[in-house]
Structure formats: structure tokens, C-alpha cells
Description:
Structural class: mainly alpha
Oligomer: single chain
Low-confidence stretches: 1-19
Shape: globular
Largest sheet: 2 strands, antiparallel
Radius of gyration: 21 Å
Mean pLDDT: 83
Amino acid sequence: MAEQDIAQAANPTLNTSPSEKLLSKPIALLQLIVFSAIGLVTFFVPFTIGDKSTILFDHGATYLVSQQHTVAVGLLFLLMVYGVGKPFYDGSWRKNITNTILTVFKVIGLVLAVMYVTGAAPDFMMEKDMLPFLFEKLALPVGMIVPLGALILAFLVGFGLLEMVGVLMQPIMKPIWRTPGASAIDAVASFVGSYSIGLLITNRVYLQKQYSAREAIIIATGFSTVSAAFMVIVAKTLGLMELWNLFFWSTLVINFIVTAITARIPPINRFNNDVERPHLDYKRGTRLKAAYELGLSTSRSATDLKQILWSNFRDGLTMAAAIVPSIIAVGLTGLLLAKYTPVFDALGLLLYPFTWLGGLPEPLVAAKGMSAGLAEMFLPALLLSEADILTRYVAGVISISSVLFFSAMIPCVLATEIPISVGKMVIVWFQRVVLSILLAAAFGHLAIYFGWIS
Length: 454
């Protein structure tokens, strides 16, 4: 069935070939329950260690950054050297102009990191809100958290929980998000995984003609957010880790509401929606039974724990290596533009009416900071990290829910066969930011009123 094909795309460990060795059903069920519970507890249950309350893998990353700083810096430079060298080794730097530009930014990012560590950077770059902030508060945590987060994600996506959630979500996908029921697995994989993996799945299924052009664009521009591990970075930067569960779940809901709206308005609703695919049903039993069977099937196929963990950890290392140098270079460019030029002031004027309607205390400052997210999704968090709690919360939501940004996501979409232009992606970005500001501000006011945020 189509949902099995997508489950295999979302989870490479899923292989239902009868020649493959499978776990027994009792062992597979135990594995599904235990490993899924480990993933859920590690990602969503805060623990207090010392005076700090946060999720477990954040404690681990914080320990590396704060207590093993020299080791962490050494590991970060190894990641960056790999990230800079890979495009030259595999030749991807000359694939197209976008890859060439991104590779240049990676090289610049590595050079800037060396200049910071050696103290050779110019004084204006060494101001505390420039390179020191980017390196110590962003690059180092990203370099440690993303690989650790990818390792923990293996427990959420490698043993059947992802497929179960996907099947259970199918009845609401078509009426709310205008995507086929089977895309639920893709949507969940994109949100809890990484945008690059999510786009890979979306593109693969689109080329198999199981998605229409419109459906592929809805998923690519609405569900392919940064990973949950990156959400931790955003929350840490904005001082929201004490509100982690509130921040995570409200951001997820707001993102999905925004996607439901953008799917119904131009430019997305004008894309071709023709596609031929079989109707999905569950003649053998109820949807709950179907979810259970698919989850158990995935767990039975997940026979090599070491390989599953290593595969996810390797993907995390690759992603961190690719993104950290770019973050430093693009981040510094954005911070310099924000501090010394009117670029984001001009773009922020377009968002000002909406930050004002949202009741943010300093609407023009907030609009300017949030507009910078078009360049790099971290910039709203960086620029507004010292703002009031409501603005910080809204900025955190914007960083995730805007989805599209030039430093990585937009080039990734352009590298697929999904038929959407840069201009239309910018329009979708603006729509998503406006809607996210209004929804996040409304929820933020409500949360403050009830004492959930203080």
C-alpha cells in the first residue's frame, strides 16, 4: 500500500522483504514500547540537575559546552572542517550557483571561527553581540546538540512510533491540510526530523507521483521545519527552556494552523493538484489496528540497534557540519546588516502592522528582528534574545514556523523537483510570518494571563 512505501521512505530500516530476518512479535512490541518511551522521556520530560531544569540531552550538551569547553571547541572545529571540505571532495560546490554561494559562506564561517578563537578578528566583530555570541551561544550548542538530538531521535523515528502516529493522523490530513492521508508519516517525519530529510522524503514521493505538485509544495513549505533539536537551540537562545513543553507543543500547533491556512490561499492553492493514486482504506480492521500493525512491522524490521543509532548520529553530524559554518557567516552578515544598515528596518516595516496588532511591547523592534528570519531562521532569536518574554516567545515561534529561509531551506527546495520558484517561496514566507505573529501573540497573551508564561 502507499502508506507502506512512505513509511519505508521515512524510515530506511523498514524492510518487509520476507527474506529479511525479523524480530518475533513479542520482542518487537517490547522494543517499540521501551525505545519509544526512551525517546519521549528524553525529548519531552524535564529533569533538574543542579539548579537547571531541562530535557536530558540538553543537559548533556550543556555539560560539554560549559564543563568540557576545550573538548567541545575541538569537536566543533572538526565538524566545521568536515562541513567545509565535503563540498569540494564530492564536487557539490559547483553543482549550481546556490551551492557555490553556500560553500563560500561555509569557508568564510570557518575563517571567522579561527579568527575568533585566535583573537585576530577586528574589534567590531569581537563585540559581545557579534562573533562571541555567535560562536559561544550558537555554534557551540548547535554543534553539540544536533548530533546528540539526532541520536535521541532514533528512538522516536526508528522503532515504529512515527508510523503509528502517521496512520492515526491520516483522517485529518485531507480536510485540514489538503494533503493525502498517507502524507501524515511524511509530515511527522519532517517536523520531528530535519528539513533536509523531510524534503528528501517529499521529493521522493512526489517523483513517484503519489503527491500532486500542490500537495508536495504544501508539505515542503509547511511541514519541513527545522528539527526538534534545533528548536532546543532556539529556546536556549531566547531563554525559553524552562517553558520547553509549552514552547514546543504550541509552536507545533501554530505551525500546523498556519499551514492549513496557506494551503488555501494563493500562491499555493493555484498549483496543479492533479494526481492518480489508489484509494487508501483499512479493510482488515480498524485504524488503530492498522497503526499498531504498521508500528509493529517497523519494529520487527529494526533488528540492528547499533546501525540505527549510528545512522541517525551520522546524519546529525553531517547536518551540524554543514550548517554550523554557514550559521557563523550568515549570522554575522545578518547581525552586521541589522546593526549598521537599514535593510531589515525596511523589511520590518512590512511586518510592523502585524506586530502592532499582536500587542508586542516594542512592535517596530520586533518586526525588524523577525524580518531577518528570511536570511537565516536563527536571526530572530539572535536579534531579540534580550527582549521581553512575550516578544521572545513570538520570535521563537517565528523562527520555527516561518519554515523558509535563504541560508539553507530555500536552496534545499530548489535542489528538489518540487515546482516552486524563489519569488513564490518569499511570498509564502511572508504569509507564514504574518499568520505566525498574530497566532503566537494571541496565545502568548493568553499564556501570560493564565500564568503559564511569566
